[in-house]
Design brief:
heterotrimer, A alpha+beta (about 475), B alpha/beta (about 475), C mainly alpha (about 100), B: about 475 residues, Amidase signature (AS) enzymes, eleven-stranded mixed β-sheet, 16 helices, about 40% helix, C: about 100 residues
C-alpha cells in the first residue's frame, strides 16, 4: 500500500509589542506573577478592549512577508468557551475576516524549492498561565492578553522534513521582521500539527489527528515521522485512525494520546460588538511593506548576485538576523564584500563561540571590522598583524587606528624606508650576498626574513621581497 | 425635605443659602427613609460621601459641583460594592471605576448610593433584584419598572435630583414613565460604556433620570464624549446641551407611530396623547401620523429576545467565581465555575442564558442569532425611512400605568402587548436618542410620552422635550410619600 | 419531553451551570415561547440582508498607540479572590 501524507500546521506567535493586544499593560516574560496586568485582561465586568496599533502593524508586516492579501477593514469575533485560563470566558480573535489570507512561504528541502500555501493569518490574544502542582493549580495573568498572530497553512505539507523546513523558515521570518523572538522553548512560538494519511491516488482524506505542545522544531519532525508510521500501521492492519489530540513524548520519541476529539467544543463565534470595524489606511499598509526589513532569501540573493558571496556562505550569513545585520552594516563602510564576509564567518564567529557571548555583547562594531578590512587591503598592516589587531579590538572595544598606533603596528610600505632597512641588513649579512652571487636563490628568503625581523614584522612583505631582489640584482 | 433640582441646588450652594454639609446630613436621613419605603437602594455610601464633602471646595462655575449622584448598581465604582443586583456579585468590590463615574467625579459630584436593578439589568419590573423588588413612589403596591427601577424610584421620591441608569430594551425610559420622571438615553456611543456591567453590548445605552429637562441637559453634557477605552464611543464633539436649550420648536416635524398609537386601549393614555399632540401643534411643530411595516413591528420583541439573551450569555461568561464574585467550593476549576454560577444566578437569569446558548450554538446561529440580526437591520432601515422626513418620533411610553407587584410579569417572553410594550426597543436597535417625559396621569399614576430623534441629535430631542415640559404642569414633580 | 429536558439541561451545563428538576417546567415554557419567536422571524424574508451587529454601521480609524500605562497592582487584582498563594489565584488542580 502506498500512502500520501497530509499535514497542516497552525503556528501561534507572541508579538514583541510593548503593551498588550487589548490593554496598555506591559508585555513581559518571566516577571513576578500578576504584576503586569490590567482589569481588561482579567475580564473584570464592564471592561472593554482597545486595539494595539503596533500589533496590527506587526501582523501586516508578516502578511506582506508571506505575500498575503490584506483585509483593509479589521473585524473581530468572540470565541466562547470556559476555562480557568480564559478570564473573560471568551477570547477576542478574528474568525470570519482574518487580516491576511492566501499567502505562501517557499521552503528548500534537499535542494527542491516548494511553495507552502498559507490559508490565513489573524490577530488574537493569549490566555493566562496555569502552573500545576501536586494537587492545586496557580493562575498567573501576566500572559493574558499578550498579542498573538495565528498562521494556518493549507494541508499541503507532506513530511516531517517539510514541516521542519517550513517552521525554520517561518521562524526566521518572525525574527527578520522583528515582530517576535519566536522561542519555542519559551512558548513565544507554538505549533499544532494536523496530520492524516490516505491511500495514494485516493480523493478521500483520512481521519486527522492533532499533535500539540511541541517545544522544538526537531521534535515536530520526530513527532510527525512517528505519527505517520503509527497511522500507516493502523491502516495496514485494517484498523481506523481515531480523531484524537496527541502530544509528543521526548524520551520515547512517540506520540501519546492526550484526549479523544469526542465532542468538539462549539465556540459559537460571533462578531465582537465592542469593536466597531476599523478601516486601515491604505498608504499606511503600503508603507509597512516598503519599510519591511529584507527577508533572508532576498538577502541571500543579493549577497550572491551583487557581492559574489558563495551560496553556502550567504546561507550562514543569514542564519541569524544579528549576523546578517552586522554584515549589512559593515558593507556600508567597505567595498571588500567578500573579505569582510570571510572575516565575519571565520574570525568573528570563532571568537563568539570561543568566548560564549551573544552578538549584542560584541565590543566591536560593524564599522570597526570594515575599517580593519580596509586597512588590510590598503596594506597598512599585514594579514597576520590584522589578526592581532582584531583580537585586541574584540577585547577592548578600541578602534583600528587606536590599536595600530598603540602597538606601533603600522606596516611600512614606504620604499625608501624599506630600502634603508635592506641596506642595513645587507651590511649585516655579507655572506648571504655572496651566496646569492653564487646562485643560491634561497638567500633572498633569508634576507627578506632578516628585513622583517629588523622591522619588527612591519615591513610590507611583498614589497620587501621585490626590493631585496631588485637591489641584489643591482649589486651584481 | 424639599426636592431640589440641580440648578436650584447649585444656586443655593453658590449663594450660600444652603450649607453643603447640612444639606448632606439631612439628605442621608431622607435617603434611609425613602429606601425603607421603596427598597430602591443596594448600598448607601454615607462614609465616602461625607469624606468627599469634607475635602470639597465648591466650584461656582460648575453646575454639578457638590451635587449628589446615585448610580445604578451596574456602574463600577472603585472600592464601593457593585452587585448588578445579582447574588453572584454580592461581595464584588471593583478595582476601577466606570468612565461615566470618573467624569462625574471630575465634576465634583458626590456619590450617595448605588441603586437596585433587575438582576444583571435583565428585566423590566425590578422585581428580580437580589435585594428584593423596588416600589413605585406614587403607589408602593406598584412596581417602579425596570431594569433601572431603583434609579427611577429614588429620583421620583424627590430626595436626589438625578440618578444614572442603563437602557437595553427600555430600561430607563419605561421606569421613567412609570415613576413620572424624565428618563433619557442618548445615542449609542455618545456616552462611554466602559466600566458599566453589560447586558447586551449592541443594545446597551447609558443615560439618566432627572425631574427637569434643564437638569438632564447638564447631566448628559457632563457624561458625553469620546473615551479611548470604549472603541464604540463617538469622536463627535459634544455640544453644550444646557446652554443650547431652546423652547422654540417651530417647524419641527414630529411623527406619531400609528402602529403603537392604535394599540392603546387605556382611554386616559389616548386622551393624553391627543392633548400632547395639540400642545405640540400650538408650539408650532408639525405633527403627523406615520406607519412602519406591521410585520417588522411585530418582529421587534422576537428579534430583541434572541439578540439580547445571546449577547448577555456571552458577556456574563466572566462571572465564574474565580477572579471575583461569590465563589462556591468545588473539586476542580470547572466545578467551582458550575457551582458558583448555579448558586449565583437566579432561575430567571439561567433560563435566559440557556436560550442565549441555544441561539448562539453554531448549528443554530444562522437561523436564530444571525436571523435576528438580519431582521434588526430591516427594522432599523424601516425606522430610518421615517427620519428622512421627520425630526422626531413620538409615542406613548406604555399602554398602561405601572402594574401592581402581583400583576407585573417580567415575561417579555409573553405575547401580550407585543408592539405597545416593546416599541421602545426601536431606540436600542437603531441607537437613536430617546427621551421619556412625564405627560399626565391615569388613575393617580404617572404616564409619559417618548420623544426619539435621529442619531446624535440629542439637542433636538432635548429642545422638543423642553418646549413640551414648559406647557405641562409636571416639571419637577415627585412623590415623597409623607402624603400617604 | 424527556429528550427536550435533557437537551435544555445540557445547554445549561455547557453554559457552566445546572438546572434543577424544579426549574424545568418554567424553562420548557420559555423555550417554547422562544422557539415561537424563532418561527416568527423565519417568516420574514431576509434574502440578501446582512446581519446588523451594531445599532449603526460606522467605520472607525482609531488604533491605540503601543505604550505601557495603567497597570493594576497584584493586591488590587486579587482583592476579590478568596484563595491566593504566592500572588496567584489558587484553584484545585484541573482533572486531566
Amino acid at each position: 500500500m502506498e500512502f500520501e501524507v497530509v499535514i497542516g500546521i497552525e503556528v501561534h506567535c507572541e508579538l514583541l509589542t510593548k503593551s498588550k493586544m487589548f490593554s496598555s499593560a506591559q508585555v513581559t516574560f518571566g516577571e513576578k506573577p500578576n504584576t503586569k496586568i490590567h482589569e481588561i485582561d482579567l475580564g473584570f465586568p464592564g471592561t472593554m478592549p482597545s486595539i494595539n496599533k503596533k500589533a496590527v502593524e506587526y501582523a501586516i508586516r508578516m502578511c506582506h512577508a508571506l505575500h498575503m492579501d490584506i483585509d483593509h477593514q479589521l473585524w473581530f469575533d468572540r470565541k466562547n468557551y470556559y476555562y480557568a485560563d480564559l478570564p473573560k470566558g471568551f477570547q477576542i480573535t478574528q474568525d470570519k475576516r482574518p487580516i491576511g489570507c492566501n499567502g505562501y512561504l517557499e521552503i528548500d528541502v534537499d535542494g527542491e524549492i516548494k511553495k507552502i500555501a498559507i490559508e490565513r493569518l489573524h490577530l488574537e490574544e493569549d490566555t493566562a498561565k496555569q502552573v500545576h502542582y501536586h494537587d492545586f493549580t496557580l493562575v498567573d495573568y501576566n500572559r493574558a492578553g499578550i498579542p498573538l498572530i495565528e498562521i494556518v497553512t493549507k494541508p499541503t505539507i507532506k513530511s516531517g522534513k517539510e514541516a521542519a523546513a517550513y517552521l525554520e523558515k517561518l521562524r526566521s521570518y518572525f525574527l527578520f521582521t522583528e515582530i517576535s523572538d519566536a522561542k519555542m522553548e519559551e512558548g513565544s512560538m507554538r505549533c499544532d500539527i494536523n496530520i492524516s494519511i490516505m491511500e495514494k491516488g485516493s480523493s478521500v482524506f483520512g481521519t486527522k489527528t492533532e499533535i500539540k505542545n511541541l517545544n522544538s522544531i526537531s521534535n515536530v519532525q520526530k513527532a510527525i515521522d512517528f505519527e505517520v508510521e503509527r497511522q500507516k500501521q493502523i491502516i495496514i492492519n485494517g484498523g481506523m485512525v481515531e480523531q484524537e489530540t496527541r502530544r509528543f513524548n521526548e524520551a520515547t520519541k512517540e506520540t501519546v494520546l492526550m484526549r479523544s476529539k469526542g465532542e468538539a467544543a462549539d465556540y459559537k463565534y460571533y462578531t465582537e460588538p465592542n469593536i466597531l470595524p476599523i478601516q486601515l489606511d491604505a498608504s499606511w499598509v503600503l508603507s509597512i511593506k516598503e519599510q519591511l526589513p529584507q527577508l533572508p532569501e532576498q538577502r541571500v540573493k543579493r549577497y550572491v548576485e551583487e557581492y559574489q558571496i558563495s551560496k553556502v556562505e550567504a546561507a550562514i550569513l543569514v542564519s541569524s538576523k544579528a549576523i546578517s545585520d552586522f554584515y549589512e552594516e559593515a558593507i556600508c563602510y567597505t567595498k571588500e564584500y567578500k573579505l569582510v564576509a570571510n572575516w565575519i564567518l571565520t574570525e568573528l564567529l570563532a571568537y563568539i563561540n570561543k568566548h560564549q557571548i551573544e552578538f549584542k555583547e560584541l565590543k566591536i562594531t560593524a564599522k570597526d571590522l570594515a575599517e580593519l578590512v580596509n586597512h588590510i587591503v590598503k596594506a597598512t598592516i599585514s594579514s597576520k598583524q590584522a589578526k592581532q589587531v582584531f583580537e585586541e579590538m574584540m577585547n577592548t572595544a578600541k578602534t583600528v587606528e587606536q590599536v595600530i598606533e598603540e602597538k606601533g603596528l603600522q606596516q611600512v610600505s614606504d620604499t625608501s624606508v624599506i630600502k634603508e632597512i635592506i641596506l642595513e641588513v645587507f651590511k649585516q649579512q655579507p655572506q648571504s650576498i655572496e651566496d646569492y652571487k653564487n646562485g643560491k636563490t634561497k638567500a633572498i628568503g633569508f634576507l627578506v626574513g632578516q628585513v622583517m625581523k629588523l622591522s619588527k614584522g612591519q615591513a610590507n612583505p611583498a614589497m620587501t621581497n621585490k626590493l631585496v631582489k631588485d637591489m641584489l640584482e643591482e649589486m651584481i | 425635605m424639599k426636592a431640589y433640582t440641580i440648578v436650584e441646588l447649585h444656586n443655593l450652594f453658590k449663594n450660600k443659602e444652603l450649607s453643603i454639609s447640612e444639606y448632606y446630613q439631612s439628605l442621608f436621613v431622607e435617603l434611609e427613609k425613602q429606601n425603607k419605603r421603596l427598597n430602591a437602594l443596594v448600598t448607601i455610601t454615607k462614609e465616602e460621601a461625607l469624606k468627599k464633602i469634607s475635602n470639597l471646595s465648591f466650584d461656582p462655575s460648575n453646575m454639578l459641583s457638590a451635587i449628589p449622584v446615585v448610580y445604578k448598581d451596574n456602574y463600577s465604582t472603585e472600592g464601593i460594592r457593585t452587585t448588578a443586583s445579582s447574588k453572584i456579585l454580592d461581595n464584588y468590590l471593583p478595582i476601577y471605576s466606570a468612565t461615566a463615574v470618573n467624569k462625574l467625579e471630575d465634576n465634583n459630584t458626590v456619590i450617595v448610593a448605588k441603586a437596585s436593578l433587575d438582576e444583571l439589568a435583565m428585566g423590566g419590573t425590578n422585581r428580580s433584584a437580589y435585594t428584593g423588588p423596588v416600589h413605585n413612589p406614587w403607589d408602593t403596591t406598584r412596581i417602579s419598572g425596570g431594569s433601572s427601577g431603583g434609579s427611577a424610584a429614588i429620583v421620583a421620591s424627590g430626595v436626589v435630583p438625578f440618578a444614572l441608569g442603563s437602557d437595553t430594551g427600555d430600561s430607563i425610559r419605561k421606569p421613567a414613565g412609570f415613576c413620572g420622571v424624565v428618563g433619557f438615553k442618548p445615542t449609542w456611543g455618545r456616552i462611554s460604556r466602559y466600566g458599566v456591567i453589560p447586558y447586551a453590548t449592541s443594545l446597551d445605552h447609558l443615560g439618566a433620570f432627572t425631574r427637569t429637562i434643564e437638569d438632564m441637559s447638564i447631566v448628559i453634557g457632563a457624561l458625553s464624549g469620546r473615551d479611548d477605552h470604549d472603541m464604540t464611543s463617538s469622536m463627535k464633539e459634544v455640544p453644550d446641551y444646557y446652554q443650547n436649550l431652546n423652547k422654540d420648536i417651530k417647524g419641527v416635524k414630529i411623527a406619531i407611530l400609528k402602529n403603537v398609537y392604535d394599540e392603546v386601549t387605556n382611554q386616559d393614555i389616548i386622551d393624553n396623547m391627543n392633548v400632547v399632540i395639540e400642545k405640540f401643534k400650538e408650539l408650532g411643530a408639525i405633527v403627523e401620523f406615520v406607519s412602519m411595516e406591521q410585520q417588522l413591528m411585530k418582529a421587534i420583541l422576537p428579534a430583541y429576545v434572541i439578540i439580547a439573551n445571546s449577547e448577555a450569555m456571552s458577556n456574563h461568561s466572566c462571572l465564574d467565581g474565580i477572579k471575583f464574585g461569590v465563589r462556591e467550593p468545588g473539586d476542580s476549576p470547572d466545578e467551582i465555575m458550575i457551582e458558583s454560577r448555579t448558586k449565583g444566578f437566579s432561575s430567571f437569569i439561567k433560563r435566559r442564558f440557556v436560550l442565549g446558548n441555544l441561539a448562539l450554538a453554531t448549528e443554530n446561529q444562522e437561523k436564530m442569532f444571525r436571523k435576528a440580526q438580519k431582521v434588526r437591520r430591516l427594522i432599523v432601515d424601516n425606522l430610518n425611512q421615517i427620519y428622512k422626513e421627520y425630526d422626531i418620533i413620538l409615542t406613548p411610553v406604555s399602554g398602561d400605568i405601572a402594574p401592581t407587584l402581583e400583576d407585573a410579569s417580567d415575561d417579555r417572553l409573553s405575547e401580550q402587548y407585543l408592539i405597545l410594550e416593546n416599541h421602545l426597543i426601536l431606540g436600542n436597535f437603531a441607537g437613536t436618542p430617546s427621551l421619556t417625559l412625564p405627560s399626565g396621569f391615569s388613575k393617580h399614576m404617572p404616564i409619559g410620552i417618548n420623544i426619539m430623534g435621529r442619531l446624535f441629535e440629542e439637542q433636538t430631542v432635548l429642545n422638543v422635550a423642553y418646549a413640551l415640559e414648559s406647557v405641562l404642569p409636571y416639571r419637577n414633580q415627585y412623590r415623597e410619600g409623607s402624603e400617604d | 419531553m424527556d429528550d427536550l429536558e435533557s437537551k435544555l439541561k445540557n445547554l445549561a451545563l455547557k453554559a457552566m451551570f445546572k438546572l434543577t428538576d424544579e426549574e424545568m417546567p418554567a424553562m420548557i415554557e420559555e423555550y417554547q415561547v422562544f422557539m415561537h419567536h424563532v418561527e416568527e422571524l423565519e417568516a420574514i424574508d431576509t434574502t440578501g440582508v446582512e446581519p446588523l451587529s451594531f445599532p449603526y454601521e460606522e467605520v472607525t480609524t482609531f488604533l491605540r498607540e503601543d505604550e505601557v500605562k495603567d497597570m493594576i497592582r497584584a493586591e488590587d487584582a486579587l482583592k476579590n479572590v478568596p484563595d491566593v498563594v504566592e500572588n496567584q489565584i489558587r484553584l484545585p488542580k484541573v482533572v486531566k
